[in-house]
Amino acid sequence: MTIIHPKKKIVKRYKNNPIITGEMMPFSCRGVFNSSAIKYNNRYLMILRAEGYNLRDSFWLAESPNGFDNWTVKYQIPLPQTEDYKIFGDNQYDPRITQIDDTYYITFCVHGIDVRMGLMSTKDFCSFNWEGFITGTGFRNTVLFPEKIDSLYAALERPNETGDIWLTRSPDLIFWGKQEPVLRYRNVPWAWGKIGPCGTPIKTSKGWLIIFHGVQIICGYEYIYHAGVMLTELEKPWKLIRMGDEPILSPEEPYELTGHAPNVVFASSHIVEEDGSVKLYYGASDRYQCVAETTIDLLLEAALTR
């Protein structure tokens, strides 16, 4: 039987998207996208992924009074200068910020011969510490949980070889193991290519809300990036309760349909406010940084009933 859903907007785009573009950067920049935002001391901060026309990416800190507009680019974030990073780190991209206690951890992709995940930390967004590589090659999209689970740190990751979302655990944030599959891309009706976790999992009374991206491949050559949502058990977050049957965000606007990578919305972070509203930050067409609005209740509705 064909499953159909009533019309309802789970996510509403900000009317003045895009909120950050390459023109706002102090260097020759072809795009700002797939960045990570967080609320720190009542300030909205974002670690920007900014890409030059030489296709080299750098990280910059930006600040906004409200999380929507009036973003000010503050300064470039220094990258690690260790020998192992110099050997492997030809490029870096897609930062993800997670607060655990009083420390903010930034996972990001480091590209050399292949891709692997790196980890930095900060307590004040002024000085940054290089913690080290946290995966071998062939891993992308690692996102930390905001608290320990059964006395271990936990993270979601996407092995490139499988294209699925897995959970992994660690005693110290450096050595990882005890992997469990969470969601296979073949079980996502609108993602025939691969899937991956987006921002930090959101803890609710019903379970962990997890926003993820999924890639639809048409005729073997056209790639369309969507965002979806699922809910997992709190104590065993590798156990899926339910996944939304349709995306919560798909490329529709001109700035999402045309760009350096057409037909892409890439949800990369979110900020949950005290009233339950959610700012969902996403990259559009590998060129623009955008934001949309939703709520915890709407995300739970999408995960559990749509």
From the structure above, extract its key features.
306 residues; 3 helices; 5-stranded antiparallel beta sheet; Tachylectin-2, Chain A; 22 strands; globular; mainly beta
Task: Write up what this structure looks like.
The chain is mostly beta strands and 306 residues long. The chain has a single domain (16-305), classed as Tachylectin-2, Chain A, CATH 2.115.10.20. The chain is 7% helix and 49% strand. The protein contains 3 helices and 22 strands. It has helices at residues 83-88, 254-257, 296-305; strands at residues 12-13, 29-32, 36-40, 43-52, 57-64, 72-76, 91-100, 103-111, 115-122, 129-133, 139-144, 153-159, 165-170, 177-183, 194-197, 202-204, 207-218, 222-232, 240-243, 265-272, 277-284, 288-295. The strands form 5 sheets. Strands 2, 3, 4, 5 and 6 form a 5-stranded antiparallel sheet that branches. Strands 15, 16, 17, 18 and 19 form a 5-stranded antiparallel sheet that branches. A hairpin with a 2-residue loop joins strand 3 (36-40) and strand 4 (43-52).
What's the structural blueprint in terms of helices and strands?
Elements: E1 12-13, E2 29-32, E3 36-40, E4 43-52, E5 57-64, E6 72-76, H1 83-88, E7 91-100, E8 103-111, E9 115-122, E10 129-133, E11 139-144, E12 153-159, E13 165-170, E14 177-183, E15 194-197, E16 202-204, E17 207-218, E18 222-232, E19 240-243, H2 254-257, E20 265-272, E21 277-284, E22 288-295, H3 296-305
Antiparallel strand pairs: 1-22, 2-4, 3-4, 4-5, 5-6, 7-8, 8-9, 9-10, 11-12, 12-13, 13-14, 15-17, 16-17, 17-18, 18-19, 20-21, 21-22
